[in-house]
## 1
Amino acid sequence: MEANLDDQAGEGLGYVMTQLLAAGAYDVYFTSIQMKKNRPAIKLSVLSAPSDRLALTKLILAETSTIGVRYQTWHRTIMRRHFVTATTPYGPVKIKVATYDGIIKKTPEYADCASLARIQQVPLMMVYQAALAALEQLDEEG
Amino acid sequence: MEANLDDQAGEGLGYVMTQLLAAGAYDVYFTSIQMKKNRPAIKLSVLSAPSDRLALTKLILAETSTIGVRYQTWHRTIMRRHFVTATTPYGPVKIKVATYDGIIKKTPEYADCASLARIQQVPLMMVYQAALAALEQLDEEG
Amino acid sequence: MEANLDDQAGEGLGYVMTQLLAAGAYDVYFTSIQMKKNRPAIKLSVLSAPSDRLALTKLILAETSTIGVRYQTWHRTIMRRHFVTATTPYGPVKIKVATYDGIIKKTPEYADCASLARIQQVPLMMVYQAALAALEQLDEEG
Amino acid sequence: MEANLDDQAGEGLGYVMTQLLAAGAYDVYFTSIQMKKNRPAIKLSVLSAPSDRLALTKLILAETSTIGVRYQTWHRTIMRRHFVTATTPYGPVKIKVATYDGIIKKTPEYADCASLARIQQVPLMMVYQAALAALEQLDEEG
Amino acid sequence: MEANLDDQAGEGLGYVMTQLLAAGAYDVYFTSIQMKKNRPAIKLSVLSAPSDRLALTKLILAETSTIGVRYQTWHRTIMRRHFVTATTPYGPVKIKVATYDGIIKKTPEYADCASLARIQQVPLMMVYQAALAALEQLDEEG
Amino acid sequence: MEANLDDQAGEGLGYVMTQLLAAGAYDVYFTSIQMKKNRPAIKLSVLSAPSDRLALTKLILAETSTIGVRYQTWHRTIMRRHFVTATTPYGPVKIKVATYDGIIKKTPEYADCASLARIQQVPLMMVYQAALAALEQLDEEG
């Protein structure tokens, strides 16, 4: 789903993003665009399940200044995901393991690292690097 | 319709936007993108009726540096619109009333507010706020 | 203060923004830029009091991937501000009144409108427009 | 001069740009930025003579939602300019000749090319290329 | 094909662009977007033949932080192309001639102009303008 | 140093970036801006030593379409840097160690990781994560 907004202030858009995510959108993002009459504007993009399209369209029409929403169907290739836990000097961090046709990717959860960083009063980067090192050792042992 | 332009100066693009709108495009907008070889570039997007696609494609090929145009069909959900007139201390302002499934939105026409602001030598924001107040009172009376 | 970041993921930047604001920065914003070797990057900009510069510089160096921060002094022309309260059908809304050399601007506080919208289950735009109408009537009475 | 705007719709900004240029600004441009609370915003930049700063500041404060404007002094290195006229198959085109320390640049005026393109009903690119060819021959003869 | 990336540094993206082009993508470009939680992010877009889709999808999943790729089919209108050579004072330059339904566009190859500019130690703009002038004379003779 | 460019194609700008870096600029980056008459444009920013300013200004004036360059002096806070080498399963990787007032940051050199990834035919992300893990172990031993 997409809508071009040239008559809406940025303040309101932060609010709309929160509402769309709460209403079940997979993802919501803004792209800066340039419209006619020298107007800087924002394109609002919403990715959702087909079954949520109508409810999210109504939310966009009610909460933003646009009078039209355009939409299209996309196909998706998604990796399978599961979670493991790695132990770092700062505490446990959840690791997202994604797999697809021989590809394996492991990424520490940012939210976990950020909350450890806040509690331990250390930079987020240090926690994140420690989590990466911990998962590397996990591999060698596993 | 979309085309990526990395060998066209910005000056020419302002001209092309005017021409595409004059030729019947619903909407024309630019998105800044980054292409290969460190080239900043512009994606030109055109929304139009399917029947205008061929004429607008020819216009893009003739007036821009691109040698290809890609296109796709979108569906649209559009609110019904009509106009009423509100009276402000600065003069009359046309109000766009948009309705869809119980949602009602009223927005003052910017062009009207801007021309009143110019004539009355007051900031556009004051005229716009007065128009919003006037339409709020319209509701209570109506 | 400014720093160019081409080796930092966006996830970490949201975290840094929160921390810089908590540490006393007036304003923090990101600008998308394009650096060498086809790298999309982010310029982090921080506006602060001169007395906070050192502490905020250390925070940027500790929390982001940059190894340098550049800075400059800006002058500012700021409007005087006070707050009044307007009554809307949805509840009271704080209004920011800003004045400077004959210019008077009144803007409803977004946070107030957003919390009323959430409580009353109505679109934020309706609350905001009602607040604007209420402040217009405030003028006529005052 | 710079101001960050997160509570102003794009429609109003096109109007402000026109007004600032009419009031004597050398150049006015918008940069898309990202502010706190997920707000997409616009940075308004104005380049002007120091003597116009106060009047343009008042215009920004009156016409936009910002309550503060920051400013700084820049130095400039500017090429000397004069104009010559080149003859193309479509009509005469003014050529801007800029010189600085041995560098000579000649660029056809876009406005002239655009008006010839409109009158002769040919693509702007053809007129522009013809103007470039004409100025190249100018060199050989001169 | 498209993927939104909010947990990947810009450095890695330059590398991915090179790899995708080497693997047969028609075009690869980045768009700056704004995602939830104040995260600046990059949308990676890849245009390719349908037959290359699977291989390129695997490359994106292996080399970037995303765990999903979405895709869609676009139609394209492409001009026919051939090349001629123009003679400039700096050396020969290949000219791309594109034709479609009566439209003819001629553009000097940037790579040729850039290598001549490097060899002759002159600004690229001078070589480019000379190439445009040369192709204009080509027309008159032809 | 800064220059606004609205009459230059993106192709030429990639070339200019390479030349400015070769001529000694610390950093060169592009920002997408929106100028008058609906023109999308690029702001070219160059960071350099004061002693290189004149030569780089001449290069900008000779190679781009701008007829003016503006400049300003910035102060900088820079971390001290040295390099160590870490051993990964894919080969040795140079690690940049930056220090400032108690802050220590270690980042693997992207160029090293990228060349190992190419030689070993593995994803760059795997090499980069291995380098981060290796430097974490370096700490424990050191």
## 2
Amino acid sequence: MSNKDFFVHPQGICESVTVGKGTKVWAFAHVLPGAVLGEECNICDNVFIENKVTIGNRVTIKCGVQVWDGVVLEDDVFVGPNATFTNDLFPRSKVHLGEYPQTRICSGASIGANATILPGITIGRNAMVGAGAVVTRSVPPNAVVVGNPARITGYADAGEKQKAATLFDLKKDEKPSVINTEVTGVTVHRLPLVTDLRGSLSVGEIGQHIPFDVQRYFLVFDVPSAETRGEHAHRECHQFLICVAGKVAVVADDGKHRQEVILDKPNLGIHLPPMTWGIQYKYSTDAVLLVLASHHYSSADYIRNYDEFLQLIKQQGT
Amino acid sequence: MSNKDFFVHPQGICESVTVGKGTKVWAFAHVLPGAVLGEECNICDNVFIENKVTIGNRVTIKCGVQVWDGVVLEDDVFVGPNATFTNDLFPRSKVHLGEYPQTRICSGASIGANATILPGITIGRNAMVGAGAVVTRSVPPNAVVVGNPARITGYADAGEKQKAATLFDLKKDEKPSVINTEVTGVTVHRLPLVTDLRGSLSVGEIGQHIPFDVQRYFLVFDVPSAETRGEHAHRECHQFLICVAGKVAVVADDGKHRQEVILDKPNLGIHLPPMTWGIQYKYSTDAVLLVLASHHYSSADYIRNYDEFLQLIKQQGT
Amino acid sequence: MSNKDFFVHPQGICESVTVGKGTKVWAFAHVLPGAVLGEECNICDNVFIENKVTIGNRVTIKCGVQVWDGVVLEDDVFVGPNATFTNDLFPRSKVHLGEYPQTRICSGASIGANATILPGITIGRNAMVGAGAVVTRSVPPNAVVVGNPARITGYADAGEKQKAATLFDLKKDEKPSVINTEVTGVTVHRLPLVTDLRGSLSVGEIGQHIPFDVQRYFLVFDVPSAETRGEHAHRECHQFLICVAGKVAVVADDGKHRQEVILDKPNLGIHLPPMTWGIQYKYSTDAVLLVLASHHYSSADYIRNYDEFLQLIKQQGT
Amino acid sequence: MSNKDFFVHPQGICESVTVGKGTKVWAFAHVLPGAVLGEECNICDNVFIENKVTIGNRVTIKCGVQVWDGVVLEDDVFVGPNATFTNDLFPRSKVHLGEYPQTRICSGASIGANATILPGITIGRNAMVGAGAVVTRSVPPNAVVVGNPARITGYADAGEKQKAATLFDLKKDEKPSVINTEVTGVTVHRLPLVTDLRGSLSVGEIGQHIPFDVQRYFLVFDVPSAETRGEHAHRECHQFLICVAGKVAVVADDGKHRQEVILDKPNLGIHLPPMTWGIQYKYSTDAVLLVLASHHYSSADYIRNYDEFLQLIKQQGT
Amino acid sequence: MSNKDFFVHPQGICESVTVGKGTKVWAFAHVLPGAVLGEECNICDNVFIENKVTIGNRVTIKCGVQVWDGVVLEDDVFVGPNATFTNDLFPRSKVHLGEYPQTRICSGASIGANATILPGITIGRNAMVGAGAVVTRSVPPNAVVVGNPARITGYADAGEKQKAATLFDLKKDEKPSVINTEVTGVTVHRLPLVTDLRGSLSVGEIGQHIPFDVQRYFLVFDVPSAETRGEHAHRECHQFLICVAGKVAVVADDGKHRQEVILDKPNLGIHLPPMTWGIQYKYSTDAVLLVLASHHYSSADYIRNYDEFLQLIKQQGT
Amino acid sequence: MSNKDFFVHPQGICESVTVGKGTKVWAFAHVLPGAVLGEECNICDNVFIENKVTIGNRVTIKCGVQVWDGVVLEDDVFVGPNATFTNDLFPRSKVHLGEYPQTRICSGASIGANATILPGITIGRNAMVGAGAVVTRSVPPNAVVVGNPARITGYADAGEKQKAATLFDLKKDEKPSVINTEVTGVTVHRLPLVTDLRGSLSVGEIGQHIPFDVQRYFLVFDVPSAETRGEHAHRECHQFLICVAGKVAVVADDGKHRQEVILDKPNLGIHLPPMTWGIQYKYSTDAVLLVLASHHYSSADYIRNYDEFLQLIKQQGT
């Protein structure tokens, strides 16, 4: 063990030799021969790592975790103590699957202490699984999930040390106006409202209140409250979102800043210009979201992969 | 009484002489001297008519009705038996108002048997007050009202013998499509709908599904269920109405035909071209109506008087 | 007027001569020549009777009432003051129907003061229309209706001077048992109930709790609360009714006594033996009524006409 | 008819001679011999008055009304056109009651046009029955009732020409404080309120916030929304009312001024000192009213008759 | 260690010698001397097994699990990684129970990863505890449970590799008819339904629609939605189940096939013949289940143990 | 290792020397050099203890637990198997906090098996965290919490071996009366109730039904159902609690006995005399709690620390 670039505690067992420089394997931990580990990883006491496992660089695995065949941990992943992976949805003793479903934890994601991850799931880049959560389906990039079963409750910020996205705070007495957010080009709009005995009326004049010509509208409704929609950016299309009934949260993200806006009035809108990553979630059961768009539908205008979005943003030098 | 052009039953009393040709006053009826009656009226038994009263031509007043100071009955009005007018909102014995509020029953309207009409109200042209109704506020043209207090339940048709407006009947299995109504230029639109586990989405492409460029939208909501909105036509502006939450009834009227459409789905719209009289009523408490318009707001574009609308239609020779 | 068998007040007008013995026509009343009146009628002040009208014997018409062409009043009918009949559902001045819809008030029925009766309606034998009611559809025999629009609120008793059916009063602490009502052969049953942590269970052993062999069951549900069901008797079939959800009122009638029972618990039943007239009404919106029957379905077993039922009861000497 | 102090139209019939000075009986009206009429009354066309009827001074009876045996109209009563009285709750033709239930319309009350009054009812002093109302039970002094069945919607003011009681208007941003009303000694109290994440807390210190020692409290709940409670004054007892759940309207009346306060928050109270006439109504279905009282229960402390209350107020010289 | 039939990793500790042939104890695992282990077991890294423990044959215990005094694992049990057993409901440091409550995991059952099992519980044969579940009460045979606290969400199939029971799929346009299921003798019945303006009516003729004479009925209601009922078979009694309000799921099981039927209409029934294992669960809060039975109640007719049921089925040669 | 007062298993690693007498460190456990452990502790297999950790006397730590920097376990704490602590609310790999939030488990508390404790939380004296619970905020003394997220479901008894507080059981047919509980001086009161057609009324005469002069009242409302209120004792003030709407649970504690009472009727009260520790929780969403108090508000009268309360009780020699 003397000429290896990585450290194994005298009471740890590391049967693999494909282990990166600076990685440490601590007491009572056990790495099987087929496992591949990156550099600068920290494998704590009582961790067990099977053979068909790939682990990136700078990964931390706290005590009491097992990494089973079929699990991939990308770079910079954090796995909290006693967090538990699985690789069989309906396990029975002595019944083995021919091939195990792959579970992928993407770069920078964290798995909270004592969380449970069901098999075949992808945890997106920078996502945060809360302590004790039981994750039963894939988690989008940056999302924060908690509970049993786990549900999205927020989106992590884009800063160095990840925090929950800041919530846009609309002052109560704001007049009809356009208000800047922290996200490039994204504005929140208080639209005119007239209320009398016959009811209420909110209006938007194209060109005056809505900052682009409208070529298309769509309505989103009947969304189960646990669902997330959007999760994409547009290359050229502007969008203007108004929640005309119920309530919905919109996360806008320019690759650097991320901010969450609650839409809960028919005279409150948000403008998402092109090259803005948008997410809608926390739909109330009666929510109806009206979207006005500057272009006719074109599938080529959609960017559906967050990594691709980040790269395009970088190319644009913004 | 011999040389008069009108008839008074031997046991009737007619103290007025300004009574039109062919009018009949029957037994136990009593017309005070100041009343003015038109031609071909029928004043039945036990009717009482005060002095400051003006009655048009071809008016029928059935038994047991009193017409008090301040009441005007235009041409072709029908007043059912025991229907009761009033001219003091808060009557006390021996307390008299200096001036009585005017109650006007417009041309062609009918007051049902035993109905009660509160003071200061206008019953619009061709409106129909149901038997036993207690009318506490003005009734728009063509509206049918019933109950205590009276509420609008429908709109009379534009035909000779007035009937309720026909209800537009949308077949259940209709595909996305444009469907003609009986009203000139008015079309009902089934818009595309996509439903999956994440919820539903309805879309309208401008120019393809929406037959005009959109310069303005407005949202109507929080309308008390007893209220009626709209009740006007536009000179140049097109409108496209979608009820994105709840339910609302839209009456479209081209001056000749009138038809009622129930909007109750986010993918169901109605196009009201210029010179269409439109009414919205029967709002469910959660209704949100989205209106897309072809022009920016202009008060000069509105026609708010139904008689003026009818005249303009006639001038246009349509 | 001296040799007539009927009386006309000096200031009344009776143009008809087909008037029965003992009938009286009072001041300011007016009977047109074609009307047919029975014996011992009382036509009060300010009543107006048209030509195509038939009135039975012992009919009372209080002041301020008009009886229009098409109205039939059978024997022993009472019409309260200012009660108002109609004969055109959609009246317009100078527009006359070729034939008027017939309105029939059956023997022994009463129309309350200032009530309004829409055209084409039948008010059943011994029914009672409450003061101020606006009757928009036909009323079954013995029913009591009130309100605008009028709804059934009870059933008149079978005694000489008609009163509302007595309500069966179930003591709160009644043990599982069979309890007699005032109606021949009709019993109310408290059935066993077992409740534990897992919920509640009610049981009925055939032969022990249910007093006949069950050949048929049916379930009645989704009944609008304003509706009445049943309204018939069986010749041979026994029925046992349990309201397993919600609440319903059952009226049982043996031709002499009539009693109303509220069913509102899954362990409360009522046994209706053959030759019992049964009615169910006042359904709560969530009501589900379970009926156990002693015979298979046979349309010949149903007696649907109350007069026929009364006659059969009389023939049986019961 | 020449030497009488009252006027009868040539085509009216007045068989009674106990008619007061200045009273007028108009055409087609008919007064039976036993009726007793006061001075300065106005009996309009087509009115019919039976024998066992007593009518006070300055009473107005508009056209088409009948006043039946058993009806008493006190001084200054107004009866609108076609308003209809009754004297048999369950009328059947040729069935006569031995004695008719008395219907009493107290001094200064008004019966709206075409209203229906069921038998045996008292309409309290200065009360106002709305046009078209169907009154099925007694109406308290000063109350305004409308609808079918009639329900209290407000209280008439104590001024000359009766208007609805003014509604006490609580400013939104009022601090914890004591606010005077227009009614002598009656104060509205905003009580301290503390709200934090754990919920809300409202507090009232006796002697500090509650201006008397508390000897008794009671809770009023499960009140059907159509009910009125209170309707009495106390001789010595103070009361402090707080609606701790739901909503209730309280009318306070010192005999000169009358004001209505909406209680709808657990930290909003009203102090009713002795010799204040108090009424509670418009209960929401979930309303729970807490009353703190300064004395133990004593039936002698209650004044339940409004006339007696007015007299006591006068004696006290207040 | 050389002459043992079982394997212990050099860094594992096995102090017991009552270990079956072929069993393997891996690194950092620790088996105390009193434990009894069967053949072909797999005891993974970091597992800890106390003294008063009995483990059957072919049992798999994944990493990070402890098996405490009082826990019994029958043959073929699977225990997922970090799954946690307990043996004291209210543990305090240094306070020891005289005797530990027994926790029994029956043959073939699986405990999901990171699940928590409270003390004194039995997990039935072939049951499946989901990953992350917190099991607070016993789980019936074949049931699938998930969540915190764990609730039944389905039933495992009877096949080799256990899957969820197939859901019976009722076609929408099925006519009144009898439809076979995959379970021997069990039929689903669409019963006649008549719907008109007065409501709906469903009927079942005994002998025609209900395939046995009815000697008993019972109603099940007020069941908390998390509860399971039934869980037994009858030796001779037929049952016919109809959910007359709300919704309930019925699982029928003949020992070979298992199928779940959703009852959600008053005209939808299921016939469970004798020797059918029946379960009802997923009650809606308003569910009322009507059961018709062919026999009077007899406790001897019930088979309440699933193993006994399976044996009886085998004896009958079916 | 021979001359140490504590035991370390040959395959355990204990790098710390500040370990109390009688403490045992078992196989595969690992204690880092900076950790401080008290006497008579039990550190089971596979436990890992970091450096900045302080552990009291008689603490039990079951298998699979890690105790991280920043965690303090006071005397007599029990930590169940696989229970998981945390010290970073938003962990990312290779990102370390300058200082870790302190997590404190107070004397006598127990952490159930597989529970998860979020960072920075205090678990109060004698509290009980249920197996599998995910604790997201601090837990008061004696409270029992379960679920994900964890909520209070009861309070541990004051006896030696801690059990849930006994629930006070109110008989259904109890007459208006005062009933003793097991807690010194605490009484439950059934108050008079009068119900008639106008609703229900409950009354309490001060001095008769309420056993002290009332100097203050307060109302508690809008409490989220997961919240706990109260959690203090008074030195001199009496309190009388009535839940006038909805439902609430009250725990009364005299330092020796603890009992829970459900208040759910407006005529049901509980008297808490001075030196009684009181807690209210399990509020229904519509609950309104009325509290009558014997003294004006004085912050000096409150004892808010349970340890202080216990000491004062002891000093008083009660």
